[in-house]
Amino acid sequence: MFTLPKLPYEYDALEPYIDEETMRLHHTKHHQTYIDKLNQALEGNNEWADKSIDEIMTNLSSVPQDIQTAVRNHGGGHANHSFFWQILRSPQESNEPAGQVAELINQKFGSLSDFQTKFTEAATGVFGSGWAWLVQDKGGELNIIKTANQDSPLSLGHKPLLGIDVWEHAYYLKYQNRRAEYVANFFKLINWEEVNSRLEA
Ligand code: MN
Fold first, then answer.
1. What count of other Cβ atoms lies within 10 Å of the Cβ of residue 159?
2. How far is the CA of 10 from the centre of ligand 1 (A)?
3. Euclidean distance between CA atoms 126 and 168, whole angstroms
4. Which of the four pLDDT bands, split at 50, 70 and 90, describes residue 54?
5. What is the pLDDT of residue 201?
6. How many angstroms separate the alpha carbon of residue 137 from the centre of ligand 1?
7. CB neighbours of residue 123 within 10 Å
């Protein structure tokens, strides 16, 4: 049985950019529901229920056909949200990547600001509900991708380094239709040390 992971900070830790009420609902209602429906789907499938959520999403195409869509949606929801909470932290005055991830971002995108422009384009360009990601591919290269609904980058062979939830439930209470403003403020909340620690050598 999967259970709701505790947030690594308080519900109001991301204020004023992500409000306490949004965080509380997002974590205790939305994330919990993905977990409940994932557990329902995996009932009676001990072989899969014993794996980690990342292992399940990485091997999604081998999940039995009759539950594959449920696992794709709700397992993806669990994997994506568990990841998302980890790469955020309280806002800081100046928030720039350090270490190897900073070097790789400069190599791939030219500068942090060019990376932010491209990541923002991806996040604001997701049509409907989904996510934008910075991922590392098998060869070690960084890329920005978008996924629809709760599809996990792991199922596409990508290792997520950074991701933003652009479902309306992630920002609507505070930002209403202003997704671009939510995305701009997201950069102040990135835990770059955590992002860096997810790089593969
Ligand atoms: Mn969400």
1. 17
2. 17
3. 11
4. very high
5. 62
6. 24
7. 24
Please tell me the distance between residue 167's alpha carbon and the centre of ligand 1 in angstroms: 6
Helix, strand, coil % in the chain, rounded to nearest 5: 55, 10, 35
Give the span between the Cα atoms of 140 and 175, in whole angstroms: 35
Place of tokens 């997520």: 160
Pair of tokens at residue 28: 């205790």
- Distances in Å between the alpha carbon of 134 and those of 26, 53, 106, 162, 177? 22, 20, 13, 5, 24
pLDDT single digits (tens) 123-145: 999 999 999 999 999 889 999 99
pLDDT at 98 over 90: no
Compute the mean pLDDT over every residue in the chain, rounded to the nearest whole number. Answer: 96
Question: How far is the centre of ligand 1, averaged over its atoms, from the C-alpha of 169 (Å)?
Answer: 6
Distance, CA 99 to ligand 1 centroid (Å)? 29
List, in order, residues 6 or more apart from 79 with CB less than 8 Å away.
53, 54, 56, 57, 152, 154
pLDDT band at 93 (very low <50, low <70, confident <90, very high): confident
Q: Rounded distance, CA 178 to CA 196, Å?
A: 29
